[in-house]
Amino acid sequence: MVLKTQTCRFSGLRIYPGKGVLFIRTDGQQFLFLKQKCRSLFIQRKRPAKLAWTTLYRKQHRKDQEAQVARKKRRNVTKAATRSVAGTSLEVIQKKKAEKPEARKASREAALREIKERTKKAKADKAQQKLQAKASGKAVKNVPKGAGKAGSKSTGR
Fold this sequence. Notes:
Layout: E1 6-7, E2 14-15, E3 21-24, E4 30-33, H1 36-43, H2 55-60, H3 90-98, H4 101-136
């Protein structure tokens, strides 16, 4: 047999059939209280959250915690995502990762050697151009920056 219970509007406790006090306000709203004590406190405009025996107080102050099932804390596992970086594709990065350290070192040294050779060649070309300019008679004088054309007036500042 199932009993239809109602809850008290003040205390939040269960009211069994045939028990309780019904209070009807002048605007027609009905309030059902467990006992006269609850009705009296409601009429005095007392706050149920401030009375330790009400369910509202117990809920706010975290009483009856053993009744609630504690949730398991989930750890956020950070997964390292491998992405392509600044112009190099993911395949190239993975290939370099898989390379043996000796091979990686050798390729690095080869790349450095190639860069050095390129700079040496560029320097040699520049020197060659200077020599050709001198030989042809177009000797360029070192003129300081900001100096105007010959014969132009300067303010002297």
